[in-house]
Amino acid sequence: METKIARRILLGFIEVHVLHHAAQAPFYGSWMMAELMEHGYQVGPSIMYPLLRSLEEQGLLHREDRLEDGKIRKYYEITSRGQEVLGDAKRQLAELTKEILTPRETNR
Ligand SMILES: [Zn+2]
Question: Can you say whether residue 72 is alpha, beta or left, with left for phi > 0 and alpha for psi between -120 and 50 degrees?
């Protein structure tokens, strides 16, 4: 999984996964890394935090700093723009899944 294209595809999947959870409930980075780990993705802080920052900068996630046990924890939740992007991604994913994962007699 270390060619450029494989890495780009993987990052896209991770971004959709992150937006999906941000639409369910606010989460923080280490929670999200543990969640991805359960799905078999090895995502460390050097990938997770820049990715969260990037989604925040693009206006797809909103960050809220909360004080918990004397530490600041950054919580992320989806914005309305993020909802739109997630909605589009879901439609595209459904279409692609139908196309490439549904057994057919022929491809033509
Ligand atoms: Zn998940």
Answer: beta
How many whole angstroms from 57 Cα to the centroid of ligand 1? Answer: 22
Q: Is residue 58 helix, strand or coil?
A: coil
Q: Could you list which residues have their CB under 5 Å from ion ligand 1?
A: 35
Ligand 1 centroid vs 82 CA: distance in angstroms?
Answer: 17
**Residues 59-90 pLDDT 10s:** 999 999 999 999 999 999 999 999 999 999 99
Ligand 1 centroid distance, CA of 96 (Å): 20
The answer to whether 52 and 76 are in contact (CB under 8 A) is yes
Of residues 10 and 2, more confidence is placed in: 10
